[in-house]
Amino acid sequence: MRHSRHSMIYSLGGFSLAGLVLGAVVSYPGWGLALGAGLWGVLQARQYNRLMDWLSQEDDANLPPEGDGPWGDLLDQLARRHKRSQTRERELRAVITRFQQSTAALSDAIVIIDSHNNLEWWNRTAVTLLGLQARDRGKSIFNLLRDPRFIRYYRKLQYQEPLQLISPVNPDIHLQYQIDRFGEGDRILVARDITRLVRLEQTRQDFVANASHELRTPLTVIRGYLETFLEQEMPRPLQRGLSQMQQQARRMESLVTDLLLLSRLESTQHISDEEPIGIQSLIAQIHRDAIDLSGEQGHRFELDIDSDHDLVGQKLELQSAFSNLVFNAVRYTPGPGLIEIRWYVDGKGGHFSVRDNGIGIDPVHIPRLTERFYRVDESRSSASGGTGLGLAIVKHVLMRHGAQLTIESRSGKGSTFSCHFPRDAIRRLNDGDSADQSRTARPEAPASPECSSTQ
Ligand code: ADP
Question: Deepest of 57, 209, 404, 444, by most Cβ within 10 A of its Cβ?
Fold first, then answer.
């Protein structure tokens, strides 16, 4: 620009000098000088107006006007910059178009949500799967996805596990929602159509449920006959064979019962008939059954129960989950080992835990323990009479109650299995409630919150 400024001064000087010389020729040098400078000013004003006309154009496809002298330099520079920015704009447009084409081709719905939970952008699949429309831009996500489970999931900010729900626009479509955070409080929501997977899973569950159901009657008949035969006098080898058959028939019956329970638990994601379950009497009952199971092994039991708080949930399911944990502790702890059962409440929620000083589990097995039929040691668990489904049942019951299972264990050092329930599943017993409960539902509940029982 320094170059242009100098050129401007030279050009003004040139015009003024020419005017002065011409004025001197006709004996009016002053007028000549003024005329030269004035002409220079008119030419500059013309160039300036042409530039302003170009700048005020709506369509920026045209190049700047051409000019002479110093204006020529300036307009050339502008033309070069203009071309550069047009090329950059074309490149950016191409990137955006490619991005839009690729996201439109995705079969997953993608939604960008800003830090105020408002909808910012979404792809074409979000229109079909979630029913988003152009007029929804800038609206709150909660106006469109109103399911309380989605709202809870969204607000919890813990997105490690995806959420499965039906589509808000089509009840036949099952969606899996996954949220990730980026930028400053922005979120990206991906909704995947998993209808086919859900149907396959349903077929599998139906098959297991039907097969288990069909096996029940023949098993009852076999067991009934075996019992009758075993009451008769018979040669020793035959009696041994029959009693082994009876033992295996019992095992098959427990397997069928557990399979049926598991498929019932899997058929719905959440419990609908929850009620305060009277946890003290429930634990007392499980304690009695565990003493029976321990039999001559003589395990020692310690109970530490918070008597001020009850748990809200589905009683039979929770009974099944808690007893699985306690019975496992008995089965995998050589007598007379120690088994501690605790129920306590803290700021995070309610916790039921079973701790034993038995054989323990090598930590490599822990992540897979809740899989169906996963066993740490096949020979040991068949000897213990387990079905291999106990912890899978526990996991499903807890999932349906919004609770979590944690397992701490080391080989040879015993194990602790804990169930963590959310705060909204806990009910504080006021004086009236506790009195009521102790009359009706707590015949064997320990008298003090902390008590120890040794068999
Ligand atoms: P099972 O019917 O075989 O006991 P579960 O699902 O209840 O099946 O348990 C899975 C496996 O976890 C068991 O086979 C056992 O190896 C291990 N396990 C469960 N509870 C305990 C425990 N308290 N101590 C040691 N091992 C345990």
Answer: 209
**Ligand 1, closest atom to CA 370?**
6
Nearest CA-CA partner of 85 in 67, 66, 60: 60
Q: Which residues line ligand 1 (CB under 6 A)?
A: 324, 328-329, 332, 356, 358-361, 369, 375-377, 381, 386-392, 415
134 plus 34 within the same structural domain: no
151 and 67 belong to one structural domain? no
Domain region containing 204: 200-267
Supply the angle between the helices 195-231 and 236-267 in degrees, to the nearest 10. Answer: 150
Regarding whether 234 and 334 lie in a shared domain, the answer is no
The residue whose CB lies within 8 Å of the most ligand 1 atoms, and thus the one to mutate among 356, 361, 384, is 361
**Low-confidence stretches of the chain (pLDDT beneath 70):** 1-6, 378-385, 430-455
Best probe residue, ligand 1, of 250, 257, 381 (max atoms within 8 Å of C-beta): 381
Q: Which of 193, 223, 249 is where one domain is finished?
A: 193
* Contacts for 118 with CB less than 8 Å, ≥ 6 apart: 138, 139, 140, 141
**Which mutation among 375, 393, 409, 411 tests ligand 1's pocket best, with the greatest number of atoms within 8 A of CB?**
375
Indicate which atom in ligand 1 lies nearest the CA of residue 387. 2
Question: Do 181 and 204 fall within a single domain?
Answer: no
Structure tokens at 382: 């068949």
Residues 326 and 381 in one domain: yes
Q: Separation of 409 CA from ligand 1 center, angstroms?
A: 11
Q: Do residues 330 and 441 share a domain? A: yes
How far apart CA 410 and CA 416 sit, in angstroms, is 10
- Ligand 1 atom 13 nearest Cα: 375
How many structural domains comprise the chain?
4
Q: Are 193 and 212 in contact (CB under 8 A)?
A: no
- Which are the contacts of 21, defined by CB distance < 8 A and separation ≥ 6? 32
Distance 413 CA to ligand 1 centre (A): 15
Measured in Å, residue 359 CA sits from the centre of ligand 1 at: 10
pLDDT at 433: 46
Domain boundary among 55, 73, 100: 100
From residue 257, how far is each of 106, 253, 386 by CA, in Å?
Answer: 44, 6, 12
Q: Global pTM?
A: 0.64
- Residue 439 has a pLDDT of 32
What CATH number is attached to the domain comprising 307?
3.30.565.10
Residue 329 shares a structural domain with residue 391:
yes
Examine the domain organization and report whether 294 and 437 are in the same domain.
yes
Per-residue pLDDT, 436: 39
